[in-house]
Amino acid sequence: MQIFEPYKLTGLKPNHLSFGGLDRGAELHEDKDCIQNLLGAEETLLVPVWRKLNLFSKIGGKGEKPLPVFLPVDEASSLISISGHKVFLGRQKNTIKTPAYLAIDVSAIDEEEAETSFAEWGSFNDLRNISPLIDGVEGSILAYARAMIYWHSQNQFCGICGNPTKPSKCGHQRDCVNSKCNSSHFPRTDSAVIMLVHDHDRLLLGRQKIWPKGMYSLLAGYVEPGETIEHAVAREVYEESGIIVRNIKYLHSQPWPFPSSLMLGFTAEAVTKKINYNDNEIEDAQWFTRGEIIEFKSQGKFLPRELSISRRLINDWLGLKH
Ligand SMILES: [Zn+2]
Question: Among 101, 129, 154, which residue terminates a domain?
Answer without folding.
Answer: 154
